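Assemble and predict.
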Amino acid sequence: MSELSLPKKAIDWFRNITTLAIVVAVIWSLIGLEIRWERLIDLPADLFLIGTLMFGNLDIADFPNLAGAMWESISIAWVGTLIAALFAIPLSFLAAENLVGRPIAWVIRQVFNILRAVPEVILAIALIPIFGLTPLTGVLAIGIGSIGTLGKLFYEVIESIKKNPLEAADAVGANKLVRFRWGVLPQVMPEMTSFVLYRFEVNIRASAVMGLIGAGGIGNDVALALRFKDWEVAGMGLLIVILGTILVDAISGAARKRIIKGTQAKPIELAEV
Amino acid sequence: MTASKVELPKKPGIPGAIIFSLVFAFVLTVVTMITVEFSLTEILTNFGRRNLVADGLFNPDFGQILSERSLSAFIETLQLAVLGTVLGGGMSMFMAYWATEFGNPIRWLRAIVRTFNNVVRSIPDLLWALLFVTAVGIGILPGLLALFFFSMAVVTKLTSDTLDGIDMGPIEAAKASGSGLISMLRTAVIPQILPSYTSFVLYGFELNLRASAVLGLVGAGGIGSRIEFFRSRGDWSEVWGLVLMFFLVVFLVERFSVTIRRRLV
Amino acid sequence: MISFKNATVEYQPGVKAMDNLNLEIKEGEFVVVVGLSGAGKSTLIRTINNLVPLTSGELYVDGEAVHDLSRKKMRALRSRIGMIFQGFNLVDRATVLQNVLMGRVFKLPTWRTVFGAYPKKDQQVAAQALNRVGMLDRAYSRATDLSGGQRQRVGIARALAQEPKVILADEPVASLDPPTSHAVMQHLQKINQDLGITTIVNLHFLDLATAYGERVIGLREGKLVFDGPGSECTEEVFEGIYGRSLTAEDTLSEEA
Ligand SMILES: Nc1ncnc2c1ncn2[C@@H]1O[C@H](COP(=O)(O)OP(=O)(O)OP(=O)(O)O)[C@@H](O)[C@H]1O
Ligand SMILES: [Mg+2]
């Protein structure tokens, strides 16, 4: 049998350059950061020590207080998410290219992009001087901070609607409002609701740390307990954060599954660019 | 042609589950609003009032980013995000593998891996940072550890969900042709998930980048410590200058990362 | 009732989907339009309710000059023309009844439609329409829970609820199996006979065209190439319309 040569493989420049860029970035970071790696040797022992201090003798007497603080965190997340949805819904219709002109859509999208880039904690820092160390600060930080992501998720849903019902609405002589009510809304409502719930799950995590800078919720209690080496309280607080978050995730996730049932929605986590 | 009157069938009631959810959502909203002492008038009057924060926002000091200390803190932040993501993403490869059926046939062990990951995922980035600051002291190491755990959990979750859904055909084919574990992974599993995995890691990087800006608030390194410094002095022009510059960079890096992710999937 | 005068449609300059068409359709006629894919059947149907506007020429429907109509009047005209779609075009997440009531929207104030508060009288019209296609008992089912044939019957009921003068159907059976196709065509035929509604149906199965078309219109490249009763449609006639010999794909039943 004579030797066969395979056709020459094309060089994938995109891939090579990205790989090179990543390698350079990693080396640059490794050299640049002055990390005291030797501290890592003690880390397991330290963690174990803190772990035993925190969870070794949990006191049930701390529970009611901390559970109340966790409830405040959940409340901050929920009210904040609703406020964000209140703004994101109308804005997202203006950001959908299939409903409005390109220039308007572009402007609204940039607003979303900017809001998306800023973490809630930074917003909270800016809001504290105005609203004080209150839960309302946390609510507004989360509310403003979530408009961008929700808006983006929403307009992607709106842009993926099927044209058929719209065509049917046109054919019966419907006006713009009726066209919207029966051609657009029924198609986007379930996904939008489920995105709101998803964002609520994300925001639980954001609101749990609001307290670290004094903007309400359980983070405050945990931060103070750690600072004053009140280990059992910190342990109980951490436990409640974990259990509370997992519980809310489970309930909200189950609700999302039911809402989305029978629709071909893409996995949410991915959609959240 | 006149048709005789016909009766519509009896209208079914609204399903109990829907009524329940609506009532539940309504009650939840009312109770939570009371909990956070929600007040529209307070919001409106406070936003309407002239304040130093807004003054700073309209008069940001962009030059601050170029000062020596801010610049090095800024670079430190980027480096933390890169390294945290690379380490967290790398670790998540193993975690995700151990969380799937073909990677870890022992059911209870799998459950432990998954539960562990869910617990890690339920702790927010900044709380991780605070915990590690408590454990190893102030510095950039706790920041790196926080980003490591945080992104590891997110990427693991996404990757293991993808692994659960991959086509088992190629795996069977590889086994049938007598390949060992490594070559099976190499030929049947990795090609299937590599694009998604890479895109998850980039997503983790975007999250880490945003998180790395606030690590400093609890003493875990990066630009956050500078932001906190100026905030405590009430220098809002400097705060906003740093924040805006940083998020301009985040914004650009994110666009770049999103572009790569688009090409991958 | 409907008359095209030198009507032309160009989607892109130079490409004529309708080419200088002259055609009269009288009140109460049942017309089947045939032609190869791309011949301009859908275009013909869609010009009648102005979903596709004419590029040049004139078109009169029910006394209105469609080529020169204000928005408001156009919606009024559309409300008098029922349309049935190949893909049914139902609102999936709404009930059958809500879908049928869509046919009433033009006659009602907007707020009533938006909140779904339809008067008894309109509900009765919808019920009659559903009854006619045998779907009354499914009034409160979701559109997604129906089979293809049932969905198309809801589509017909929606058109009927408009109490239309004209019904347009663009390949109404193209996504249905043979027995269901016949059932749907029979519904359309019966409605035409009982209510005297002018009906225009696009079909690509020739045996369906001869079986149901009182009058068959053949199109090729946007031009009218045949106009005669279905009974006169022999294989030669269709080969003339298509410009090629027939194959098994051109008929619904197996034999060509
Ligand atoms: N929206 C459009 N934009 C551009 N060209 C179009 C458009 N719709 C139709 N055409 C073109 O116009 C011509 C006629 O199309 P039409 O849809 O009327 O054909 P048809 O007979 O209904 O075909 P089919 O049996 O495939 O539905 C075709 O050449 C088609 O490519
Ligand atoms: Mg067509």
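Residues 154 and 192 of chain A are 6 Å apart (CA to CA).
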